[in-house]
Specification:
With 298 residues, the protein is an alpha/beta fold. Helices cover 39% and strands 18% of the residues.
Length: 298
């Protein structure tokens, strides 16, 4: 894409960006081009198709070229732009936090449904909050919940705190510097719902993964044989989860049965897979047997 003093039509810029991204190559070059241009130029997605005659200034073309050069080095687009969308909200992201994945929205949806059945002010903890996308989405959509957001990384926890301010929920979140469930076990804090997307990429999978993954914090991705953090959750869960409470857990897609067995061996039950059909499980709901609190009726 030229960088002279001339302007370019928006439709020509859109086509050129798609071509540049396809040549890298990236997965979904058109979708990335849409995100890049709507964010950098402040235009709507429909403008890319309906306002193609709009002229793009040389300074904006230069900014686009800089971003494309970074993307050609395989830096994730979310880090280049400094933000991404999750569950209808915009979140600031940086290399101290994992970039939120679309499939994790299923975990949020499930947790919100569970919280609706709990009376009063249910207590929920997001373990390994990263950018805060899970905890903040839950707080934004279930104002009566008491939400803990835990992290082992101070830098990640600060990013989550900044995102909570961005969405006006900081006062309803409790940020905790903690390794997994350790603080809750030590302080005897009971929880109604626990939500967790733990590191689960095996070391072998990481060495064979896309170059973009090397820009993300490895501590938020890898877990030895893939089960390390699931084992730790299974060992600690009984000390903090209330009877009838649940753990909404993102799964390693290839280890679902082995992961669930870690919990059933300790007396927990598997309520359902997420989504609830064969061949595409991204999460599971683990329940502690016992009498749950009576459902909340709004």
């Amino acid at each position: 894409m030229r960088t002279t003093d001339d302007t370019m039509r928006l439709d020509a810029v859109f086509a050129a960006v798609i071509d540049r991204l396809r040549a890298i190559p990236v997965i979904g070059p058109r979708a990335e081009a849409e995100v890049l241009l709507t964010t950098l130029l402040g235009v709507r997605r429909t403008d890319l198709f309906a306002a193609g005659e709009r002229r793009i200034a040389p300074a904006d073309l230069q900014r686009i070229n800089v971003c494309l050069a970074r993307r050609a080095a395989r830096e994730p687009l979310a880090y280049i732009l400094g933000e991404t969308e999750f569950y209808g909200l915009r979140f600031s992201v940086n290399p101290s936090v994992l970039i939120p994945r679309q499939e994790t929205e299923l975990i949020v949806e499930e947790a919100l449904g569970r919280l609706q059945q709990i009376p009063g002010e249910p207590t929920v903890a997001d373990i390994g909050t990263g950018s805060g996308c899970i905890a903040i989405s839950i707080a934004a959509h279930c104002p009566r919940a008491v939400v803990y957001a835990t992290e082992i990384s101070p830098e990640a926890l600060e990013t989550a705190r900044q995102n909570s301010r961005r969405h006006g929920v900081e006062q309803r979140l409790r940020f905790v510097l903690s390794d997994m469930l350790e603080t809750f076990v030590a302080d005897g804090i009971p929880l109604d719902v626990i939500v967790c997307n733990p590191p689960y990429v095996t070391d072998d999978e990481y060495t064979r993964s896309m170059p973009e993954n090397t820009f993300e914090p490895q501590v938020a991705l890898t877990a030895g044989d893939g089960l390390r953090y699931y084992r730790r959750l299974a060992c600690s869960l009984g000390a903090v989860l209330r009877p009838g409470g649940c753990l909404v857990l993102e799964l390693h897609p290839g280890h679902a049965d082995r992961i669930e067995a870690l919990f059933t061996e300790r007396g927990f039950t598997v309520d359902r897979r997420i989504p609830d059909y064969p061949g595409a499980s991204w999460g599971t709901v683990i329940v502690r047997p016992g009498a749950a609190r009576q459902p909340w009726i709004p």
